[in-house]
Amino acid sequence: MTGVRYDVPEPDAFTRVYWDAAAEGRLLIRHCGACDRSHHYPREFCPYCWSDEVTWIRATGRATLYTWSVVHRNDLPPFGTRTPYVAAVVDLTEGPRMMTELVTPTPTTLHAGMPLEVHFREGVPVFGVGGVLGGPSTSPSR
To answer: Which of 23, 41, 56, 115 could bond to 123 as cystine, CB 3.0-4.6 Å?
Structure first.
């Protein structure tokens, strides 16, 4: 099973837009023109009003921490080499909640409502505080 990645879904024709944008350092979400609400994970219809008037929009990349859990053991690659890591749910500024991984210096500094910003690790959106990935920030330009 060499080369298999368990941490990234297999893109299909619909989600390829999302993953291509993430590879370029942009976070996209879906927005409904009928009820004016945004949602995530990407769907071809609005989960609130069932309209198919949904389009991709660029998210600001800002969020607040809703909840988290520190994972100390995971045997699937590449997670085993990352433990402990922080699995989290964040509230995006645009409204939707998003499951993600937090990249923060220490889990003991986390608190609900903490402001976060998106970063990208190997084309995958993760969240943290400021430039926690080291070097220049990989968050989207505003």
So the answer is: 23
Which sign does the torsion angle of CA 14, 20, 21, 25 carry? positive
- Find out whether 80 and 115 touch, Cβ atoms under 8 Å: no
Residue 136 pLDDT grade (very low, low, confident, very high; cuts 50, 70, 90): very low
Specify the residue for token string 């920030």. Answer: 137
What's the pTM? 0.83
Q: Residue 135 pLDDT more than 50?
A: no
H-helix segments, the chain: 16-23
Q: Quick check: 60 and 142 in contact, CB under 8 A?
A: yes
Contacting residues for 51 by C-beta, under 8 A, at least 6 apart: 32, 33, 34, 35, 45
CB neighbours of residue 97 within 10 Å: 15
Q: How far apart are the first and last CA of the chain?
A: 40
Give me Rg for the CA atoms of the chain.
Answer: 16
